[in-house]
């Protein structure tokens, strides 16, 4: 049991109710909570002075803090974590939230990327936070790879998958390429690629290049590496982080410091610096996980919370994740079922199309 879990277990009923009411009021309003506010609707007849004493004890335990000398209290990060783990009541998915998410599947489009884009927008609209959808890679076995020269500084790599899916990508090849070096590189890759997915191919390609140096010249080696790097590092419509609703994190009263924190967070996301870590957040079990503030370095500087859930393919393998970023005073009880439902919906969508 965590330290905060022990603290919650050792609290008496009065302290637990004061703490719960402070957190719930803060999550609803975002404003510090004073003793007189709690006195008005407390379950027992109790004086503001008694409540102040309880709040002071909770502050001493590191669960509440005073943003200003004369203000009420707000929960600390530890306090929010204890509330989420021990006192949070998760509601049922509301029908209008379900309809907003379900409406994204009304199109007959077979473009998974486009559907995921709409799901991200619907998730953002339903939660009034910023939504994140990590789209999966295309994992069908490769049937054929081809390099096509377009100009001295532009080339096209074409991947044909066994399920009929075709991906095209323009990239900058190493200087000095010739038609023969491009054919040589393609032949080399095709000898290795058939029956392998792109991720499987990437695990063997460096070793094969080292073992077969005489069979492929330096230029072709560089072309192979740069051509694959386009798919591995630059991403595509089947491996990308979809972010929608960032404006929801910036209210009319946003301070310049908060604005810079949010900008920094989205700069990191757009550079995909931590895209792999984002998936790892959800990779320790099914279900929804909640990260508050500095519990994850990707969101620590922005002071944001992340509610995230993985989704799986037909083989029950985690292939992506959906989540919502918002201020630490998110309505967790409402957002958790929305994220959970969306993740299940996306998993079914991917499984049906595979």
Automatic annotation (TrEMBL):
The keyword NAD is assigned to this record: no
GO biological process, one term: negative regulation of DNA-templated transcription
Record-level Gene Ontology MF annotations: DNA binding
Domain Heat-inducible transcription repressor HrcA C-terminal: 115-336
Keywords: Repressor, Stress response, Transcription, Transcription regulation
Transmembrane segments: none
Pfam families listed in its UniProt record: HrcA
Gene3D superfamilies per record: 3.30.450.40, Heat-inducible transcription repressor hrca homolog, domain 3, Winged helix-like DNA-binding domain superfamily/Winged helix DNA-binding domain
Family: Belongs to the HrcA family.
General function of this protein: Negative regulator of class I heat shock genes (grpE-dnaK-dnaJ and groELS operons). Prevents heat-shock induction of these operons.
Protein name: Heat-inducible transcription repressor HrcA
Gene: hrcA
């Amino acid at each position: 049991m965590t330290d905060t879990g022990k603290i919650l277990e050792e609290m008496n009923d009065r302290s637990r109710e004061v703490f719960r009411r402070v957190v719930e009021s803060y999550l609803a309003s975002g404003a510090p909570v004073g003793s007189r506010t709690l006195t008005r609707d407390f379950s027992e007849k109790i004086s503001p002075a008694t409540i102040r004493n309880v709040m002071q004890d909770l502050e001493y335990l590191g669960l509440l803090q005073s943003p200003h000398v004369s203000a009420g209290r707000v929960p600390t990060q530890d306090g929010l974590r204890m509330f989420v783990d021990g006192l949070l009541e998760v509601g049922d998915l509301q029908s209008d939230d379900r309809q907003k998410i379900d409406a994204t599947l009304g199109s007959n489009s077979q473009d998974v990327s486009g559907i995921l884009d709409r799901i991200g927008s619907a998730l953002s609209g339903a939660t009034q936070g910023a939504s994140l959808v990590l789209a999966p890679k295309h994992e069908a076995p490769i049937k054929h790879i081809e390099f096509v020269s377009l100009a001295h500084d532009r080339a096209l790599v074409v991947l044909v998958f066994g399920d009929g899916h075709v991906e095209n990508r323009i990239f900058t090849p190493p200087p000095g390429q010739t038609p023969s070096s491009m054919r040589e590189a393609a032949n080399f890759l095709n000898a290795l690629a058939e029956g392998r997915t792109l991720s499987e191919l990437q695990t063997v390609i460096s070793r094969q290049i080292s073992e077969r140096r005489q069979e492929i010249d330096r230029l072709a080696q560089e072309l192979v590496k740069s051509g694959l790097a386009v798919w591995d590092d630059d991403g595509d419509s089947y491996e990308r982080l979809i972010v929608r609703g960032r404006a929801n994190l910036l209210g009319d009263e946003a301070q310049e410091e908060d604005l810079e924190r949010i900008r920094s967070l989205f700069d990191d996301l757009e550079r995909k610096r931590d895209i792999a870590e984002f998936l790892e957040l959800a990779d320790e079990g099914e279900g929804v996980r909640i990260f508050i503030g500095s519990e994850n370095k990707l969101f620590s500087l922005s002071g944001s919370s992340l509610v995230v859930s993985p989704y799986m393919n037909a083989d029950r393998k985690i292939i992506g994740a959906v989540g919502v970023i918002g201020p630490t005073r998110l309505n967790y009880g409402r957002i958790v079922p929305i994220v959970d439902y969306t993740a299940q919906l996306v998993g079914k969508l991917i499984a049906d199309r595979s």
